[in-house]
Request: fold
Amino acid sequence: MVKVICKEDCGNAPKKLLLKELITSIANGKISKIVAQVSDDVVWNRVGVGKVEGIKAYALALDESFNDLHPEELVIDNILTHGNGAAANGTLTTTAGKSFAFCHVYIFAGASTRSRVKEITTYSIELEQ
Reply:
């Protein structure tokens, strides 16, 4: 289980809580919990890596990322939401001692708290030790 550190205010609104759970589930490799929160036609754009489209391709890409990284600690610094958009940033440390700064930008299918994520853009930078 990945150690998760998150500011308390990251869970003070329904979408913030949903994104906190989503990011935590990604770090813990809980793919089925993640795909329940995204639309069937989800698009994941990993800047500098490539784009995957559709829920099956997204689940496969998440599984490959999890198996490559082996996360040990997740620090969520901020989760910001407004309307149908949101963003989250923080750092992820792996069992191999590598650290990555990340920012995820989310677009939901609507502004409702029950809307699923339809687009994610991820920026990830490996940090020097």
